[in-house]
Amino acid sequence: MDNARPNIIDWAHFERSRAELGPGFIRILGYFKEDGVKSVAQIEHAMREQNTAALVLPSHTLKGEARQLGAAPLANIAELIESTARICIETHRFPDELVPQVVELRRLFSQTVEAFDKETNPVMKRVAPNGGFGRRASNQGFGRL
Asked: Is residue 120 within a helix (H) or strand (E), and if so which, with residue range?
């Protein structure tokens, strides 16, 4: 696994979305971060309160936004939470079995946001796998004839 580009993101999909959205991409990415923080908190709150219906909308929102940006593992967990909650609403039970997925959701969301930030924030330091970029800087020839 390349530490600079974790495999939790489909980077080809991410770059296609970036190209298609053009200048609006950073705004959409900002919405993903803001909505994602709210969605994860709402999902965790719904689990604590044992409110099955309250699991559906935030997990649906997170699923769609994550898929749009190529974050399939995050989208898959959100989809599992959403679909399980929908089934549980029909069967009138609470999905206790989702606790591990809800715990994983926060960790994976944080890792996803961190990966997106590293990829899009020019201020964050990015080091190439070989430890540098381009030709090696050298002042060995400076001042020599």
From this structure: helix 99-120
| Tokens 């009138």 found at | 92
Residue 101 vs residues 23, 84, 104, 129, 132: alpha-carbon distances, Å? 34, 11, 5, 32, 38
Quick one: angle between helices 99-120 and 53-68, nearest 10?
30
Q: What is the pTM of this model?
A: 0.80
pLDDT tens column, 105-135: 999 999 999 999 999 887 765 554 555 555 5
* CA distances from residue 119 to 25, 49, 111, 116, 134 in whole angstroms, order as listed: 13, 36, 12, 5, 19
pLDDT tens, residue by residue, 69-90? 999 999 999 999 999 999 999 9
CA distances from 137 to 3, 74, 124, 133, 134 (A): 24, 40, 21, 10, 9
Fold assignment, 11-120:
Four Helix Bundle (Hemerythrin (Met), subunit A) (1.20.120)
